[in-house]
Amino acid sequence: ERGGYPHFMLKEIHEQGGVCRSTLKGRISGGSVDLSGELSMDEHTMISFRAVHLIACGTSYYASLIAERIFERWTDLDVKVDIASEYRYRDSKITPDTLVVFVSQSGETADTLAAQRKARACGAYCLAVTNVQGSTLARCCDDVLLLKAGPEIGVAATKTFMGQITALYLLAMYIAKVRGTFPIERESELIDELLQIPYKIETVLEREHLIEELASKFAFSQNFLYLGRGISFPVALEGALKLKEISYIHAEAYAAGEMKHGPIALIDPNVPVVVVAPKDSLYEKTLSNIQEAKARHAPIIAVGFDGDERLASDADHVLCVPPTLEEFSPFVTVVPLQLFAYHVAKKRGCEIDKPRNLAKSVTVE
Ligand code: M6R
User: Which helix (DSSP H) or strand (DSSP E) does residue 278 occupy?
Assistant: First the structure.
């Protein structure tokens, strides 16, 4: 049932092109996103929203941080993201004109369910973005947007993260379009590129042997620092979480610009720094953070676009991914980080599919 792969996690990583493709399927027609057939929220409801809150735990929270930036870019809504275990106890202003999106692979995470009860009591419109139709979360929300990822067995979430970001991009595009805030002059460029993303994910997967080689060089490091800016910051967080969960290596992720506010003190030649550096509007800033880390003799592992010679000369190692539009880089940059974590854990002889102390779904507080 592992389809010839040694672990479910690796099988699921390799399914991600397909997951993205299936999650897009039937949701784009005539060059435009259309979710009207499956969401019950009507145009009037979508126009009446003032704010959107994205609430989740773990990897689903990191997918939400990516979506936060996309909602900010394409819509005029006030966007807020929170961890469910915080949201359920704080005094956020949740009003009937707030759309609260609960992102949960399983739809059974206790804190996310409690946060949903709170939002419901405040009269907010609740939408579940989940992989499990019929889950508690799906049943309790006003609306459901499904990821089409298929069952995920590995405790470390990989393909469901891909499904989540795909679904969340579609949602942001759809709401933005209905509200008239979507950059319509870019619609065909954005949709065409989104449809190319599954192929680009598959191209990264074909380079697994290069990532495996790199993983063997760093498998016995004790600490890692992951950096990224803008939309690449949540990718850095997710890459570090994958490494922590399955290899038990201490990995910290920081917004690259925060480095000099503290974590730079950690850097020395024994702390590899993984930098997510796609060529986007923050690229130059990220390169200067690489310089700062290099000056302290940290080995630099960068994730960047094919053909980026500057990055190749500045970093010690580059994991290349096919270039894409600035908005879509997380789809491709996260994949080498998942594979890197997997191969590091494998070299260390860890229990990859069932890491210690972790459960697939956290149904208690
Ligand atoms: O089922 P959920 O998406 O609600 O689960 C949330 C987290 O428990 C989950 O993402 C966890 O962080 C994973 N182990 C990440 O790999």
Answer: none
Q: How far apart are the first and last CA of the chain?
A: 32
Residue 116's SS3 state is helix
- Output the CA 58–ligand 1 centroid distance in Å: 5
Ligand 1 atom closest to the CA of 84, numbered from 1: 4
What pTM does this model have?
Answer: 0.98
Measured from the Cα of 109, ligand 1's closest atom is 4
Q: Which residues contact 58 (CB under 8 A, 6 or more apart)?
A: 157, 241
Judge if the beta carbon of residue 362 lies within 6 A of ligand 1. yes
pLDDT tens column, 224-264: 999 999 999 999 999 999 999 999 999 999 999 999 999 99
CA distances from 347 to 218, 272, 285 (A): 10, 17, 34
Give the pair of three-digit tokens for residue 164: 């989540």
Cβ(13)–Cβ(159) below 8 Å: yes
Distance 59 CA to ligand 1 centre (A): 5
Report whether residue 156 contacts ligand 1, using a CB cutoff of 6 Å: yes
* Two structure tokens written together for 278: 């796609």
Hey, which residues are catalytic here? 360
How confident is the model over 312-330, as pLDDT tens digits?
Answer: 999 999 999 999 999 999 9
d(CA 109, CA 97): 25
